Amino acid sequence: MKRFIFTLLSAGFLVACSEEPQVVYQTVTGFTPVKTEYYEVERLFIGRVSASQQANVSFETQGVAEELLVDQGERVTKGQALAKLDISLLKTQSNELAAQLRDTKSRKKLAENSLRRQIDLKANGFTAEQRIDELTSEVESLAASESRLKASFNANVIRLKKGVLKAPFGGVVSRRFIDAGTVVDPSQPIFQIIDEGGLELKVGIPADLVGSLVAGNSYAAEIDRVETAAIFVSAAAHLDQITQSVPVRFTLIDADARDGQTAVVSIVNKQQIAGFWVPIASVTEGMRGSWVVYGLEGTSALRTLTQSAVEILHVDDDSFYVKADITGDIVASGMHKVVPGQLVELVVVDTEQPVTAELGNIAGALNIEESVGLDEQESIAPEVIETDKTSAVEAE
Question: Tell me, what's the pLDDT at 191?
Fold first, then answer.
């Protein structure tokens, strides 16, 4: 009986020894990069909305503001009366000048008649040459006085007309500076009028980005979280010494905004550099600070890992744009679990490409004269890239 049991155990041991051990391969997820000839970066700049026309209107003559016809917040049309001066003194001066002009004309007419009679008498030898010269001089003097009085009268008429302040263009009265009864001087502001029909957006753009803007092209903008369109108009020829940016003007289309309100304009910059968009988790650190991806060599489910160096050109939220010699699939994530030369099992290939545009950080500076946006840095510092890569690895 004991011999029988020993024989069975021996047979089972021999059978077990004859079976080959099963090999378990590390599984990885693949990604198929698609080569592109360029990448786009969306960069956001802060600007300030301003009216295309705004003016502080004032009287051209001194006087007392007798009546203010509009107030702050009211809409006005071009040529509408805004305020009136007390013109009673001007009316008196106008009457006085009119009387002097009539007197001068009367005396001039009398002198002209006398001169004609003296000329007739001279023809008959009954007058002296000196008398004719005296009358001729008197007529010329009275003619000069008439011209001077006419000019004074016309100037007074103009001052009477300018006693009514009118709107230079249609818009909204944004400010009222005085009250009725105030003695005003020439050029003292009475109202501020803003043209709401034409709004502009003034932004500071880096000089290297201005060349990509095309006059008349529409660019996406956002005002108080409401999207609108901004049409590029022109760029200044100078560089702002404080912000080191170029002042640029955009026209806002159908924007519900107010003068002085902040806005954000989006400019997409195309970089003509061939490369690949790859997930952040697919890039790991190589030798001497370099960056690498692991390629999947082979055509079956079992693949051999190869190492390829990459140059990171751009980074966005979840992907890198790299310059590399990539010819096939790469490992999408889990780089810390595998090494080059290892035989791995490919379980799935991700074909969805990363987003090819970056929403850049908003940066800007606003001053009294105009709003100037400061651009974020174009290049990505190595320590920033390393931080992102480390986070991606730890997430795995």
Answer: 93
